[in-house]
Amino acid sequence: MLADRALYWPRHRALIVADLHLEKASWYAMSGQPLPPYDSHDTLDRLAALAAETGAQAIWCLGDSFHDREAAGRIVPEVAARLAGQAASARLIWIAGNHDGLSGGAWGGEVADELVVDDIVFRHQSLASETRAEISGHFHPKLRMHVRGRHVSRACFAGDERRLILPAFGALTGGLAVGDPAIAQNFAGAYQAMLVARGRLLRFPCAGRIADDVTASDIAVTPGA
Fold it and tell me: Model-level pTM?
């Protein structure tokens, strides 16, 4: 797990992200809510930096890479060129999401409904009937709690021994509380909220909700994440 809301799989030199929601700001602008049109640039800046840092030869995008099905018509030439350049420098796989369909292939790369690698299924939204190991996105899990009197809100991973839900990678993506029933129902029982901070993997137990007040004894720390 990487601090910037992504996974890196060294065996396949694959960088794995979910929910980029490119062109979300331009979607808001169409509805009369003008936002600075830089979210796609920021998201692609971070993606390119992680690809360079890890030496990734593949990038797997687990759905909702574009905010809506009409995003292709709003992308400016500079963003389109960056997408094409990223596809040329690494094997780019676009998994279909509920927002974006399969529009990603317009800028290179491959499109698919799901991907299976080493008996692990990669898809956009977790499937309750799935018996194999599974990695997905869709829910934008976020850890919200109070620690020593301070409110903390961070994008996080949610997972157990068989299933992992990635945080949203995009610059303008919100989040759903990791203990929300919509997320909890994807797990058979207890699961964990996980995030990387200062090179350490922090794990918080979930059983349908996160406690409002968390003490040091509630947090499991794995060094060198």
Answer: 0.86
